[in-house]
Amino acid sequence: MGKKILVTGASGFVGSFLVEKGLDLQMSVWAGMRTSSSKRYLKDERISFIELDYHHPEILFTQLESFKREHGKWDYIIHCAGVTKCRHKEEFEQTNFFGTKYFVDTLRELDMEPDKFIYISSLSIFGPIHEDDYTPIQDSDQPKPNTAYGVSKYHSEQYLMSLHRFPYIIFRPTGIYGPREKDYFLMVKSIRNHVDFSAGYKKQLITFVYVKDLVKAVFAALEKDVLQKCYFITDGHVYTSRAFSDYIQKELGNPWVFHFKSPLWLLKIISVCAESFARLFGKSSTLNGDKYKIMRQRNWQCDISPAVHDLGYIPDFPLEKGVKETVAWYKQEGWI
Q1: Residue 129's Cα: distance from chain center in Å?
Q2: What is the pLDDT of residue 184?
Q3: Distance CA 203, CA 193 (A)
Q4: Domain definitions of the chain by residue range
Q5: What is the pLDDT of residue 205?
């Protein structure tokens, strides 16, 4: 086998695709996940599994020490573990930031630093900026995260950057969609039921990235001579708020659809109520206060030219092509 690689959050949407790509490249792939997590998309017998407890440093130390004793260290680590929605906002910081910090601290303590440590962050760390002139977000811009999720990712980035000579590479993807993804799938179900919902009346410019394009960029970074860099990742295009739903509608056979545009004040009320109701029953809600702020944001453009220059990144999936493949997968799997 080739290089040893660990993918954390391997049971998740993005993580499972990262695992598959590692196997395609004949790497020795370890999937980091909780024992309670599903292995639905991790059936390949070549995958090795390891449980990692990011909430308890002493347990994490024992787990990693045991691995090192038997296998040495990983050549590459792609840290994809984290949460995108929680019942309580403090859980974002505990999982996304402190979980990352404990993990990296333990790796360094055990002398298990990999050759490259890929961290999957988010465009959300920048918050709503350049909303007057709609210019693309640049790496040189000052992040102003306005969601608990964005803040937790920003703190993780800042921590990695503060470490002396730590071999990080940070990816800041925009909205990631594709097969197996469940949040954008809600839009597919809604349009199938003849309703399309959008937020606000002011112009909104949105960016997307198909999951396979993100995976392509990540593995390009493992091959190229780059370290301590940050990259925005999109499909290279900018879309209006209707584009995604229009492509979905086309792939569903152009059913009639009522396009409902909600004023932001009404969306805020609905989001708060949905979050409160879900919390009452001990669940997390897709529509919540953080999601409201994301939907309210008007400018999601960002500059991917550094990824194009450094990594040779050329996206394969513009939105229309990505939606076509995604909806076909939903149909094949019986989701719709």
Answers
A1: 20
A2: 92
A3: 26
A4: 4-177+209-234+301-316
A5: 95
Contacts of 16 (CB under 8 A, 6+ apart): 10, 41, 42, 180
* Mean of pLDDT over the chain: 94
Question: pTM value?
Answer: 0.94
What contacts 24+ positions apart, CB below 8 Å, involve 98-103?
98/54, 98/55, 99/54, 99/55, 100/54, 100/156, 100/159, 100/160, 101/156, 101/159, 102/54, 102/55, 102/57, 102/60, 103/8, 103/52, 103/54, 103/60, 103/79
In CATH, the architecture of 4-177+209-234+301-316 is 3-Layer(aba) Sandwich (3.40)
Which residues have CB under 8 Å from 14's CB, separation 6+? 80, 120, 176, 211, 214, 215
Which region among 88-97, 137-146, 172-181, 218-227 has the lowest average model confidence (pLDDT)?
Answer: 88-97
Q: Which residues have a Cβ under 8 Å from the Cβ of 286 and sit 6 or more positions away? A: 85, 183, 186
- Section 200-228 average pLDDT: 96
**Higher model confidence: residue 216 or residue 281?**
216
Report the distance separating Cα 36 and Cα 249, nearest Å: 36
User: From CA 7, how far away is CA 18, in angstroms rounded?
Assistant: 7
pLDDT per residue over 5-60, tens digit each? 999 999 999 999 999 999 999 999 999 998 888 999 999 999 999 999 999 999 99
- Of residues 283 and 127, more confidence is placed in 127
pLDDT above 70 for 1: no
The closest of 34, 67, 69 to 52, measured between CA atoms, is 34
